[in-house]
Amino acid sequence: MKAFGELFQTADCKTEKHVPVIECPDRVRAGELLPLKVSIDKEIVHPNIAEHHLRYITVYFHPEGKKLPYEAGHFEFNVHGESAEEPN
Question: What residues in the chain have per-residue pLDDT under 50?
Answer without folding.
Answer: none
